[in-house]
């Protein structure tokens, strides 16, 4: 989630025999540009009426988006799928480090070090988007072959496990028993399930563009805990459109492959039971109606970014049980979900316990305190799903 699906390879497994079907590119395949109906995943607020198949994966939880994508494919191609495997370009580049380089027409030798830049960071080098789409179609079946070849299964499994922790790789299967196995392995791409505090921010392009390649994002929260374990939280989501100068010989169209402009929906998701108190963009209050995503609320205002522009979405919300009682102490619990970005988002957290409490020693990695009632967390790049408990006592 955070980008539209680009290229598909249907894979058939029948009594141990594997075969691959036609590689399909969503931008050029018949029917993909027209809005259409498919069976909606019940309760998904991001599916409204007719939609283009490219928008099937807007939900950040792959249990939902995988199901939507399978339904969209059936509507588009007439085949019912048993499941969907999703993987992003960054994860594919790390797979190359295990399986070896690829020789690709036009792009040359792709390695783990250069693939991301060559495939999605060099749009200006390919004035004809059709040429890039052709490269995608050529690459996709090669990667399927690498994934299923059986060469270095331990190394491949390790890369895919790490990619799942980074929300760059996920599996969805219609069979509940099969899906339960991948849930237990942490490979299903679900959002973190927590009743306590939570950080999960997800952006989507609202106009066709590739500018989110240059997105730089910092999420900062200031948490004020109360004696009963509830909390008021202020979250600032600062997004920087760190795009380079526009170099095409025509005016910037503000959309498409070469634009340096971007329009993003910015969607912070709250923990279950939490409610929004206020929403603002660059300090200006915003009237917006929170929506319910399977028990947790979210907003997703649209913000336009000029080249090199910075904008900040600020939300305040109340969490009923950000902390729980631990004897005479309070234990603050926080779960964090990354979005699969080329440049992972930075995170800053400041937690203030009630007066009369002091943060315990032995804090998790990344956390610090000066011996008082305040604990802080900082990372320059949230790469993986994380969860923490911070304890304070009288």
How would you summarize the topology of this molecule?
Elements: E1 7-8, E2 11-14, E3 17-20, E4 24-25, H1 62-77, E5 83-87, H2 89-99, E6 102-104, E7 108-110, H3 115-120, H4 129-148, H5 153-165, E8 169-173, H6 176-184, E9 197-199, E10 201-205, E11 215-225, E12 231-241, E13 262-268, E14 275-281, E15 284-285, E16 291-293, E17 296-298, E18 302-305, E19 310-319, E20 323-326, E21 329-336, E22 346-352, E23 358-359, E24 367-369, E25 374-379, E26 386-393
Parallel strand pairs: 9-21, 11-22
Antiparallel strand pairs: 1-4, 2-3, 5-8, 6-7, 10-13, 11-12, 12-19, 13-18, 14-15, 14-19, 16-17, 20-21, 21-26, 22-25, 23-26, 24-25
Helix pairs in contact: 2-5
Which labels suit this protein?
single chain, 8-stranded mixed sheet, 26 strands, 5-stranded mixed sheet, 394 residues
Can you walk me through this structure?
Helix 2 packs antiparallel against helix 5. With 394 residues, this protein is an alpha+beta fold. A hairpin with a 2-residue loop joins strand 2 and strand 3. The two termini are 43 Å apart. The longest helix is centred in the middle third of the chain and has 20 residues. The strands form 8 sheets. Strands 15-14-19-12-11-22-25-24 form an 8-stranded mixed sheet, with no helix packed on it. Strands 9, 20, 21, 23 and 26 form a 5-stranded mixed sheet that branches. Helix content is 19%, strand content 34%.
